[in-house]
Fold each of these.
Amino acid sequence: MKIEIQGLNMIYSNGNHALKDINLEFGTGMFGLLGPNGAGKSSLMRIIVTLMKPTSGAVFIDGKDIQKHRKELRKMLGYLPQDFRFFTSLKTWEFLDYSGSLAGLRNKKERLSEVDRLLDQVGLLEARDRQANRLSGGMKRRLGIAQALIGKPRIIVVDEPTTGLDPDERIRFRNILSQLSQNDVTIILSTHIVGDISSTCQGMALLNRGELVFSGPPENLIKHAEGHVFKLHLTPYEYEKAKEHYDVISTIPVETGWEVQVVSDEVPEFNSVSIIPNIEDAYVFFMEHKLHADLID
Amino acid sequence: MAFLHNIRTVAKYEAKTLRRSWFFRLFSIGALVIFTFMNIGFFSPIGNEPWALVSISSSVPLINLYLLNIGQAIIVIFLAADFLKRDKKLDTNEVLYTRSMSNFEYIIGKTWGILRLFLGLDIIILSIALLMNIISKIMSVDIMAYIWYLLIICVPTIIFSLGLAFMLMSVIRNQAVTFLILLGIAALNMFWLWYRAGSIFDYMAFGLPVFKSGVIGFDNLGVILNQRFLYLFLGLALVLATTLLFKRLPQSKLHTGISVIFFFIFLLGAGICGFNTFSAWKKNVDEKNLVIETNRQFENRNVPAVTDAFIDFNHKGDAFEASAHLKFINDNREGLDRYVFSLNPGLAVLKVSSNGKDLTFNKINHVIEIDPGKILEAGQSDSVVISYSGSINEAFCYPDYSDNIKTTPYRIEMVNVNKRQAFLTDNYVLLTPETHWYPVAGLNYYPSNPARIKIDFTRFSLRVKTKDGFTAVSQGNIKSGNGYYNFAPDSPLTGLTLAIGKYQSDTIKVDSVKYITYYFPGNDYYKKELAELKDTLSFLISGIMRELETNFSTKYPFSTLSILEVPVQFYSYPKMSTQTRAELQPSMVLLPEKFSTLQNAGFRKRFTRLKRNMARNNQVITDKELQVRLFNDFVRNTFISGESYRFVNGVPLNEPTRYRLGPSFYFFKNNFYSSEYPVINAVFESHLQKVSIPGQAVFLSIMGGLSDNDRANLILKTASFRDLLAKNPGSDTIRIVLTLKGDYLFNMLRSKAGIDEFNKWFLNYTDEHRFQRIDISKLNADINEEFGFEFYPYLNDWFNRKEQPGFLITDLEAAEIVAGDRVRYRVSFNASNPEPVAGLFNVSFRTGGPGGGGQQMTGVFQGGPVVGGSFTISMQGRGMEAADISKIIFLGPNEAKKIGIILDAQPRALLINTLCAKNIPGEINKPINNIIKSKNKISDFTWEEKLSSLPQFDDPYEKIVDNEDPGFDKGQQISQSPLKRLLGIKSRGGITYQRIRMYNIPDYWQPVVQSTYYGKYILSSVYTRSGTGDKSVVWATTIDEPGYYDIYCFIGKTGAREVIRTGSADAPPPPGAEPQGESPYQDMHYKIYHDEGMEEITVDYENAEPGWNNLGQYYLSPDSAKIVLTNQSAGRIVIGDAIKWVKVK
């Protein structure tokens, strides 16, 4: 399956230019959309799941414009929105049954069996008969992923799925998505939590203020940061000075003062060691340093 | 199909969600509880089983769904408006929006989900009703009515409410505003629009007459279906519009296309149905106006009087063919060159001939103008044959009624029933003279003279051809055979009625009158419920008829009396020209199916209840005796004393019930006419068929308020009789004015001829001239010949003058005397009429034995809508037995007389009825407390002595300010709400004289009249709810001479003691026992302004003397003097009447 995004623009009625000429292409597997809050991730997601029409541009799935083939797209779609907290007075299994029924599972017996399977998969079987609106935040998220998975969708779009989850839930969630990505499905994961991407995504895109600033495998993003991430051992005085000159990624107090990671185009003047960056370092380097530098250029 | 699957899925979960919402749960549980209790209370054998509701079985589902639908329509608004708000609020719903379904499927699914939930609730409640219906011993089950009402009441209402709510929410996108608009529309529907323009705006079927007769089913199915489909289609169109406006990207072009196409189709359907509904109403309005305009063209034309009519009637489904062979006489003073008849505008005249020769004619709407080719001279006779066919246009009937009144359904309890004046269908026919189903000489309405009526006494004969299995019913003797029914009434009739249906009949002959009941199969329930009466029925009927004949002092004029059962939709309006309603025809009464609207017709339930009550009170009564009582109650209520006395907005209204047999003794027997005074027959009828109002005088004397006479006098204060008639006033107004004018006219005749002498002569006269039209000038000549006076000259003033006489009664004295060798009582008084027009009043007495103070009169009044509860009023005092009129006194302009009357019994009070005069109340009650003993013997039993001058009413040393006088000020005390101001609703408070209300007492000073209050002509006072002293009334006068003045306030008491006992209207206390409770009148606070300032005097109402009570002596300078009464009191009511300043000599 190939998803192509061509020249996508989204301008809201209040003049907010949420997406600016986005061009993107990705295939099966997990694809991460990374960006700070307000970058345009949710707008892009909502356009992909046909909740919204772009101002211009198009999204193609296997060559078919989704605005013209909404029915086909919706048939193969599972969607978990960012704000999946409010439910009507339905029980957990009923909500899944409702989603399953609309996802095309017409046979009641098969549908109920699928409901139970998914509830089991997301660890909610025991909460089967509980009111969905009385589940905990994590359980609601799991119910959300279960409803996105029902009907065996080929495209799964999850918007900020781990926000607000505790570490256990987040790990569990990532695992579920990783497992899914092994199948022949495309998962579009939108997040501003960099860790969600590094562990699971084969491809990714970085959005900032509606613009696509990077696309490609996470490794490529990391490559951009190689040689630009340093570990410094600083006295408190030096630390104050370093904060003024470099983008600090992390700060750990040590006996002699501070162990600090920074991103920089050049080797810092302090006692520094160049280290291999991870995706989080790469993200900071890219967003805070490279983009800023490009902007100045 | 994915399409249906998706709709079903959305519907299933929408219904599930809704079912679990607390709002719906509360509503449905509340509805289940209320309707279960209601059904048990109304329809179950242990319930009340009101006859009006249980007699026709379709009432059961109708009442249930009618009430439920109102609640449902409101709840749907809340739930439906919540629908989009919820969708908007819950991002969770977006996961559903990304599923593969079209907007059409989603919205239709939601709609169906809500609809099926409410329909489910409806069906559950209907099942409860059905259960009661099945176990009831009285009702039959009309299962089709359950289905019909569900479909025509609930489905369109819910769908329209949903569609409108969806649509508004989609457009406005603000739940609060949507709620307000929707609730406003619902309220407007219920309180304003429900009957207007043929109920076209009535989306809730709140006022739409959907009652299903047990005999003919729906009589207006076309109207009902059009009106309901209007809202069904409009609702569906709005639902589809919502799918198009729904904030989700559409998925299926096909479904969007279908939505667009069906949106327009439904809109078109709604338009067509709306047009049909509106045009049906508009057509009636236009046709009514056309009738009026046509009548205006012909109202001054002379018409012949039809003496004989043979009508050949051939029923053809919803039409008929007929020919009328008419013989007539020209009883006008001029010759006739054209014969003018009127025939229902729905009927087409095919041919007119005379003696085998075709005549030319014009049919202008409903008027047939025939050219006889000659002039029919006065007194000559002629005949024509008119062939015609077609159907009946009911818009022709009652053209004088406003469109609103005609289109408002009438209500049986709470259900709306269509008003029909005729039925002409394949299975049932009912044609009364009102429809002019045969040619009638004259018009049905005279626009310039609405009180005019043209009555012919015609010898009818009728031949009717019907389908097999159907029975024709009309007046007269019947002969049937070969599919024909021949009717030959044995006396001339004022009109002919025809009914055709699957009638069954029973006949009983009593005292040479044949009583025939025609009923629909299965509706003769009374035979079983009054089975014990079989062998005594003749005796009972004979007794009742004798009572009627005694009441009217004349024999029943016909040889038959048919009781004809007609569909419940049959309805008549009171007319200005006659009080006789179309339900009563010569020798025939048209009663509603199963007597559903008649009081006391539920014999079985009443039997059980009375039997139980009697057993409880250890009273022994046989079943037969009880059934006799039930039968007598029913017959008396329906045919003899029946009247509908009720309060409408606090105003007592009384109208004769439709089925009183009174018209048989005058209207169907005699007719007096006058070209100069066309109202004369209505006046005679009003007086001679007068409905007595038992208890009204007692009620008014206790509570204050206006009698019919008083109301009529107030009306006549502003307009002459002639001017009033030209204004086409309401039926109640015209009835009371006609009665008053009739009373006045007949009292005048009696005053001149002698009461007994005139009564006897006039009864003979009407009997001798039965079934004849009599010109009033002939009556005048005959009276002149018999009694030596002419009344005709008085009619000019009686008809045209607005001025009223006013009577003052003074110097009342009573003495015990010896007259004619026995002890009798002489009562004398002065009566004066200071006004410039003559008038008369009648005098009667309340008499009672010596020491009669021990008698007690107790009235129990059930509170009407204004009172809002029941209460008991006890009045201890003297006997209130009615007395016949002793004397009628005629007083010319500015004339005074001393009147003396001798009585056999001791008088307790002088009762004056001033009839047509300025006096309010017109019934004056002057207690006679002091009877002196006189040894004089007298021979004159009554006398009238003309006084040389008018007795002085006012004392020159006294200054009196009454609440009617200019010196009285009750301030601007009625504050009108801004909403009322906006809608232009006038407050009725404080304007007219009303009765004293013990509950919901007005917080303004309300005028009230009562004969014990002070006044020159208007004996009135003002009262208000007690308060803190923030409201007050002021009496002010100018003092001419300085000095000391005694100041008095007037307290008009109705009896020795008045109390209010709250709670249920149980049995009154035994005679002589003290009524318990407290008086509503207690302390009253007067502020007296005098030279030394102001002094507050408290008057204890309980201990105050009836009449003038001294407030003290004060020095007053020549200036304005003023007394203020505040609303401060420990009692519930404060009342103010008059203040008197008396110069100390």
Amino acid sequence: MSAFTGTGRLARLVLRRDRIKLGAWLLGTPLLGFALAGSVSEFYPDEAARLSYADTALTSVVARAFNGPIFNAELGSIVVAEAYLTLTLLAALVSMFAVVRHTRQNEETGRAELLGAAVVGRHALLAAPLLVVVGANVAAALLLGLAFAAAGLPLAGSLAAAGAVGGVGIAFTAVAAVAAQLTVTSRGANALAAATVGVAFLLRAAGDVLGERDGLQLVSAWPSWLSPLGWGNQVRAFGAERWWVLGLPVVLLVGATLAAFGLARRRDLGAGLLSDRRGPARAAAGLLSPSGLLWRLHRGSLVGWSVAVVVLGVSMGFAADEVNDVIAENPAAAELIAAMGGGVDDLVDAFLAAMLGVFALAVGAYVVQALLRTRADESGGVLEAVLATAVGRVRWLATQVVGTVLGAAVLVLLAGLATGLGYGLAAGDPGRCALELGGAGLLQLPALLVVAGLVTALLGLVPRWSVSLSWAVLIGFLLLGQLGAALDLPQAVLNLSPYTHVPAVPAVEATTLPLVLLVAVAGALLAAGLAGFRRRDVPS
Amino acid sequence: MSVIAIDGLVKSFGAVRALDGLNLQVEAGEVHGFLGPNGSGKSTTIRVLLGLLRGDAGKVRLLDGDPWRDAVTLHRRLAYVPGDVNLWPNLSGGEAIDLFGALRGGLDQRRRDELLERFDLDPTKKCRAYSKGNRQKVAIVAAFASDVELYVLDEPTSGLDPLMEAVFQEEVRRLTGNGATVLLSSHVLAEVEALCDRVSIIRAGRTVESGSLIELRHLARTTVTVETVRRLTGVAELPGVHEVRAVDGRVRLEVEPEHLDALLAHLIRFEVRALVSAPPTLEELFLRHYDGADDGRIVAGGGAEPAQ
């Protein structure tokens, strides 16, 4: 029996379990690509429109940080700039979660033990999901390439751009394979892998913000080359394609896979790299209540999120100040902004407001994952044991909601404070900037309340669907926010997202009415969720 | 007043009728065995008693309250050990015990430490590192260290070794010695025989037998194997005699306990050389129901519990 015996059979099991999740992504990716390519060509029909886009993309720090570099003013370049972040983040997250689901989560639940006892080689448990996920990325890339070409973009560039997206997915597949060996829990492995995506984004953004403009082309600085997200850009799809860059994710995959197999050989099934420490024999008084337990279970993830938000906030604050420098060096951009009817301050404010919106979306993911823990507890059986004690259902779920919303409030406040601090340190008056943006951050809270309300309503009313629907709704909000304008969607559709209704402070004045309405909607959803949870069977 | 009184309980999950008119009566101070094949509805019944599931029809009273409406107040007066114990992986066993105790409304610290010692459980280990048996011990210690009126135990010892099984039995006796009531769902027949005053056997969501073990034995047939000098005739026609078969020159038959006397009077006329009379073992009592020997094989899949 070789170390890989049974890989094929296990791969079929992975496909069977993930046929909906991977299938939806596999089909969604080319559809999204096709729709974006179509709408971009409508938006920028002629040379002049494309040139002005390219000029903004090359001068604006915001555009450089979020959309990455461009290499000419062709339609394809613009499509990549508009679609790259969304498509690569989707590929990275889908791939990482799939790998962790079929490796560390299997070990955590004991399924791996059952499988490992069958005629299955030592490495098959890791090789099978890797095979499937890498295969899915290749397939998604091919479909995406065809979709771009079908939308009328040049074939070579289409394949290069799609290959870049697939490469990012493969690179993070590799990262997840290693992360799953290091931590004991799947939650930890997912967090570790997600953190590397954050670092990769920061490196890429830094490299592109610090890059040099050369005509209509941006030459990224070295940090971009340290990031798998940067590699995809450096393929220079629709420019002078550098196909060899597509080899970098493959090299990473081979290296990481060998490392993961090596780590797996050195540890026991179910164990991580670090063995578990012992805990206290008696519980501290602070643990002995639903809220104490909530704090204990979520504090680790809240601290991790806080660190990430502060680091990102301060660096984005610094980046905002560069808007001033870029404009000082580039009179054409200043003219463009002036033509749009704004001053330099407005541009900085718009950037800061956009940043806070992005933070609020990310904190939405915190809200969803924290609240869905109740569903995991229910499926795992521990909720049953808790509700058999003298803790009422409404009290239990309400505690989860209040705790999660408080955590979200801390995160958006920190995001605002850190962004303001970073900008203030660079532009002067850090104290005032921090306070001002901290307040602006808190204004995002009503949108997050709506997210919390939605998840609670799903938990109470359609528990079996709560996990998939909660994430689907959040991804929907993300797509509306990121792509709504690019796809030129009608306002009625954009209004479906609570994030649409948050005033973009500091770019515009804060208004009370939309916030009050958001809170009211959230209240109704929460009430429906709690009522449903009180009446339904547990477990169900 | 009965501690548990269930009358005609019905619970369906979609098209599957998990409980189909179930009855259960548990009196104060007794250990009541709750038996039935896998999937017969034991855990579903217990979940209804705990107010986790809502029955579709029938009457359910628990400690003289409504288990659904009065869940929180009733839960202060009972402790529950689930069949499949899941805990928070990053809490230590000691923390989990204290937490469950606190959520229930208090824990006797001295009893807790004593139980930890008796069950030989290390409370400093993280819950994710415990084996199935040790997770069960955490739940048992947390329940037994609570001073309550009713203990609901759903297959509490399925992962314990024989030594711990003995400790468990002693501790259950101690609970009832203090006046508590215990509902014990179990597959370990020796445990049921050792602990239970009365048992209820359910199958496919219905109660098929209920009573003390002695009563149940009386309800069941005794197996008699007899060897006679002269050829034995006419037994099959006697009232209450069933399944007459010749085995190795002997005759084996089953007889209802109240007709044993008439059978013996009949046998004497054929010069009995050897006679073995075996009352039904508990195992036979159960197997009769588990196998569904009376009305065809309808054991597995007869009922359903929600997927875990």
Amino acid sequence: MRLSGRHIDCIRGGRRVFSGLDFDAASGEALAVVGPNGSGKTSLLRLIAGLVIPSGGSVALEGGDAELTLPEQSHYLGHRDALKPALSVHENLAFWRDFLGGAIGDLAQSLAAVGLAHATHLPAAYLSAGQRRRLSIARLLVVRRPVWLLDEPTSALDTAGQDLFVGVMRGHLAGGGIIVTATHAPLGIETRELRMGGGK
Amino acid sequence: MTALAALIRRDIKIALRVGGGALIGVLFFLTVTVLMPFAIGPDLALLTRLGPAILWLGALLASLLTLDRLFTADHEDGSLDLIVMGRAPLELACAAKALAHWLAAGVPLIVATPVLGLLLNLDATATSAVALTLLVGTPALTFTGMIGAALAVTLHRGGLLLAVLVLPLSIPVLIFGVAASQAAITGPLSFGTPFSILCALSLVSLVVGPFAAAASLRHGLD
């Protein structure tokens, strides 16, 4: 499997964010998108997720499921956690498991893997920022998608949470997955760097 | 199918919990209808004549009140991004959200109608006529309102824009809804004619609404 982008141009709000961008990521590889604030890291991730339409160029996944589009084979972990405060931890995760569909894992196991097994029936409104992030990460585990698009995934996580997330990402890469992540801090896994802005 | 059922279940659950929209709509409907007899005065004949129009106006405004949260809540917490990326077609996901909204916020209005009919001096026939027209008419309000709700997300303007966009679309529903109820109460028109048009309006909006809303969401998320 290979995720590649060719000559991508991105214009948002009338401003050229980046142009002529090329990138490649193969199975088992993590691509770290680095660069100063406003250099288009989030835009690139949202573009791969199909949420921003490129003004030029294209992104393609070779060797994936031919029946599905790239966004349908991707997980997007953005700044916002996509959690409903009125629903419990269990209900939030169960909803995304049922809605996203495809190959699914065990819900209780996923919650245990991110250290939330004790809080399954707590409303999400009472979770701390770090716990909310952990619950979002559990979403990546409960539904299997080959491509993970992670935007600042370790923000709000404590050291234990970061170590745990390194394990989660290692597991995904070992299973032949692809990770594209926007980050400022070193993630603790082997990554290839894609430098945005400044350098060009 | 599980995806859509999950979406409907989740939206209804959120609407029925504390802070959800279901209760707000019914309370608003109740307030408008209860206040109306005090404003108009104790003229029973006049109340009977105005009753269906008052109930319809109350239901229309109550459904507008809660509709603007249909997509903005999901947009603000990032759920909408994942819904757009999901494997369920976006059109069907929009239809599922509208259906959930109607079940949680529209059906209670219809259930409340017989009680409120008493306050407006409507007899059993008149009340059931209004309830029946609301039953077939409120889906049209929800599904056309959904278009405005989707545009409100992508144009980053809240409820005001929704009211401006949706009101013209809901005027035909209001006209034929009230006309059908009046026909059942006083005649001379037959009940069937305006009622059939009302059903047609609902069916058209069931088809057009999800496509228009999905198109708006797909091109406007940035």
Amino acid sequence: MDFRLTEEQVARRKEIYKVCEELEKKKPKSYVGFESQFDNQDGWDFHRYCAKEFAKRGWLALGWPEEYGGTGTMMDKVLLAEARGYYDLPGSDIFGVSMLAPTLLAAGSEDIKREFLPKIASAEIMFCELWSEPNAGSDLAGMTSSAVRKGDEFIVNGQKTWNTGAHFADWGFGVYKSDPAARKHHNLTFILNDMKDKGVTVRGIPYMNGSHVYNEVYLDDVHMSAKYIVGQENEGWAVVNVLAGFERSNMDMVYGLVKAQEELVNFCNETKRNGKPLSQDPLIRNRIAEFACSIEAVRTLAYRVADQQNRNEMGLMDAASVKVFASELLEKFGQIATDLLGPHGQVKHSKWAKLNGSAEYNYQACFVPIVSMGTNEIQRNIIAWYGLGLPRMK
Amino acid sequence: MDLRYSEQQEILKKSAKDFLTKECPKAKVRELEQDAKGYDPALWQKMGELGWLGFNIPEDYEGMGYSFEDLTMHIEEVGKNILPGPYISTVVNTFAIVEAGTDEQKKDLLPKISNGNCILTLAWLEENGLFDASGITLKAAQKGNDYVLNGAKLFVDGGHVAHNMIVVARTKDGAGEDGITLFLVDAKAAGIKAEVIPTIAQDHLCEVVFKDVAVSAKNVLGKVDKGWAILQMLIRKGSILKSAESFGGLQAVFEMTVAYAKERIQYDRPIGAFQALQHKMSDMWIALGTSKFLLYEAAWKESEGEPSAKEASMTKAYINEAYKLITALGVKLHGGIGTSSDHDVPLYYRRAKAADTAYGSTDYHRELVARHIGMK
């Protein structure tokens, strides 16, 4: 095996870290954690600002074919995720850049690629995802919202939910039941729509910490153009599966953990209790070392996923492992950090907060990666069924 | 970056697997647990012929001169099968001679080890059970051209069958790292008495008592009083290789468990159809994946001669726990049959505890990790 980055990659990494380090200085004070980009206008403006900065360097089109404006390699994309995670920066639209763009490249028509890829690469438009419904969460195929074909259009009706960032997004990508008579998995169509379309209503669902991340989206007689179908009509399920295959190495989450560990170590070194630094307490040393071992373990596995992606291999099972393990480590970080801070563990970002309030933040925000993108229980199903070949639940 | 086994490594893996499947079936593993020697001399000879004992010995001394990473991968395969006897100890301890021995010591011992004619063990731990330097109390007093050893060592792997042992002794008063010296000792010398300790893996760890054992000054390994650095090197490499063995073992149990879950029928379906069991097996898979590249990152750094102490300790601390987790789940998922001494899973479950303490426990290595990550 060879864990070494090439000289070119090392130089690239340095360049990316430098840009991200500069961007971090412009981060609004209230920006703590990944979900902050959706919570308020300052967060969203910062997201767009970072996206523009990345776009002008070609960093939102890393690893794409050159004919669609691609630059760099898949590994560069991993390095950018690493640096963004470390500096807790937004700027890469998880829906547009990470999910839709590779899906369009794999399954989109030439027209749709030509229309949307440049807008994603330039950060001109941001996407949201319109998948889950009140009665179709993990079991997505059970959705009821309908798209009825009428000439060159679909008339779409229904309700979507858990739509991250839909209150700011310019466009959405959704799946709708387009042929009620057809058998399961051949009755859905994947369509893009402008979130300003008539009949689209977005309502916030406050997260447990009060922040605005998720939404409900109501669709009332929304006219969506048939030219914005991705893949084939009634074959949206196949597109959903292609998209799910582009779940990433989660390197940003992993490097968020790397940074969290550094901050925790510094805090313990600098904080005295009973005249002794916390860092000299053997139980605390043991607990943080255990956390550090787990972070290094998942960091190396995330690199394995990146290495596979770089070779155009999918590595779905390893990617599922990273998703589960890293998000549950984030949960653990929330617990360790709030414990170590003592009474300050409960303090939100404010003048009384330690670690900028990241302990209290992650104690709650950790459930976003745990339940989204296929809950961790769904990931465990995926590993069991497709990885281990165990019988599928009927 | 390329995180795949090379083609040559795949071939090495396969040959190790084929050899052990034939030569060391589980019946033999059980038999050797009860055997007085605890290893099979004929098998040891064959391993010597195949070069298994000389993987890390330079070709100049009749070894194979393989890389540390290749060795790690080989040991992974050995761990999958289980190979009773002081094999990994001998291989790890050989590094002390390769890296710190005089030319005379090398010429004397390395070809013998490589050819399967010398079991080399390490007499390190003592009654106090400490892994750090303060645990070393066995005295070596200078007397003319000799040193005279007095004291007792515990958990000496195959101490009763070893030909030579590296004894970690105190040559200066105090409890620090300075003043520790390593001696190459003939295991059959007068005044040495070894007795097998009953242990969880029945792996023939011994108490070795030294009573006025005279060792010539030319058998000092490295420099007098400066042996701790060599021992640290052995702990580092041993941690990686012991973790490789554990990683092999946890894969074996994982595979056995998934296979059993597919064939065992209850409630008219394979038990592997139940999600309660599926998710435990998925967790086993996740523990396996996270172990693998942590291990190989450490092995790769060690191979490249880069600083690897942090990664070695992280690997040992992490895989210690992963091995115990996976083997315990393996027992539970097999149900009643998994608790039987006739079943293979408990062979690994017991070894997971034994592996955990070899070359430093989880807590010992976490303390080293705490230092490496900058906790003051």
